[in-house]
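RESIDUES AND SHAPES:
===
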Amino acid sequence: MQLIECVPNFSEGRNPEIIKQITDAIEAVEGVQLLDVDPGKATNRTVVTFVGAPEVVIEAAYQAIKTAGELIDMRQQTGEHPRQGATDVCPLIPIANITMEETVEWAKKLGKRVGETLEIPTYLYESAATRPERQNLATIRAGEYEALPTKLGQAKWQPDFGKNEYNDRVAQTGVTVIGARDFLIAYNVNLNTTSVRRANSVAFDIREKGRLKREGGKLNGKVMKDENGDPLREPGACKSVKGIGWFIEEYGIAQISMNLTNINITPMHIAFEETRKSATRRGMRVTGSELVGMVPLKVMLDAGRYFLTQQERSTGVAESELIRIAIKSLGLDELTPFYPRQKIIEYRLQNLNARPLLNMDLRAFANETASESPAPGGGSISAYVGALGISLATMVANLSAHKRGWDARWSEFSEWAGKGQDLKDQLLALVDEDTNAFNAIMTAFRLPKGTDTEKTTRHAAIQAATQHAIEVPLKVMEISLDTFDVIKAMAEIGNPNSVTDAGVGALCARAAVHGAFLNVRINTGDLENKSFVEDVIKKGKAMIEKADALEREVINIVERKM
């Protein structure tokens, strides 16, 4: 399924009734998932995030722009944030199984409909821009709403869609900018000052375009120019970062307001660190930060690993711990609580019902296994036992990274712990996947078999489901076998006080390989693809032999060290 994200910014952040009517228009479109609504009183702006298939996202965006144009009167609108329309900007962002080029075409379809049907002058920006000078939003928004009476009507400002004239309709709605872009993070860093001037000095240090270059490096020095008469600039520390300083009366502090336009070039934690360094040089202190809208999971995990590395601590910890470290290190909870389930995109999209076993506590999982239901069965239990085995080895790695006197080896053990966490997560995912595979077989058997066509369809579904039910435990075997690398290493070089934990991990890994192979074999009897069956059995037997040998090696190491 193709997925795109839409993050429209509406020029209203103080009236909850208006905001609710706009978001209601979005949610009324079937198939759209509203992820986040982030209003700001001082900025008088609300950032909304929703996702879905392209068709429904475009429909929802259109309805939201229509509603905002009816309810927001730009003649009365004021706020800290630059703006020029009721729906100031409406970017589309490719999320899954869709290219930027395809997303651009959807942006054009939306822009055309808004410009022609709603009669709101519409400009295209970023990847959808029709002219190079319109790629940058700030260029299009120059002069803001107040400049529209003089801008519209000029050939230079001919909208991509809609009329090039300032009329009563435009006086109320302003203009809008629609585009397609990569994921952007709206991010504010808090300072212990109320001075916008000093905040701007930090922003100029950070943002890519930096500040104007002046003679003698003095604030009041004459602006230096190149041979064409264009002002020279001193670039800032962070590429793909836009930023300004402002005062937020609601919080009583100044902030550096940034847009991180390419998080692969400048991730959030680097922008934070460069801001901290600049503020310190200028006699100020960063007290925390604020995330506007939502963020990909990777951004939080990378930040957590960065700050743990700065502390020379193992980064091979659970995902939840990495996120906790990122929140505390960046001060994301200074102004308002930071809830990962609400702010991280993948968590909002996550269907908790798709992983019912993993969401159970230990007692519930055991009770479900012991019930009269045939699933979860041996396959799921094998995957879970394998996950427990590698979890023990990962624990040994983390304990070793923090062992007194082994400080110089923290990164070595951190790497082992990271490998262990990855293998653990893969095996945990297979706990529910094995049960889902079994349920798929049962579903196939319940298909109708009256007509010849129905019989053929049912037979094909049973065969496909059976093959998948073989492939899942085979994957459990492969990953469980891979865990021996970490387990054996921790038995050999890990904290000697925990060597028996590595030994128990080896026992679990061997049990997982043997248990999963039983599931493989029981399902091969019903599969007609005999060449596939022969190949699977051959691979399985080889993995059994290898698991037995590796377990013996680990246990011998443990016995020797005890």
Summary: The chain has 18 helices and 13 strands.
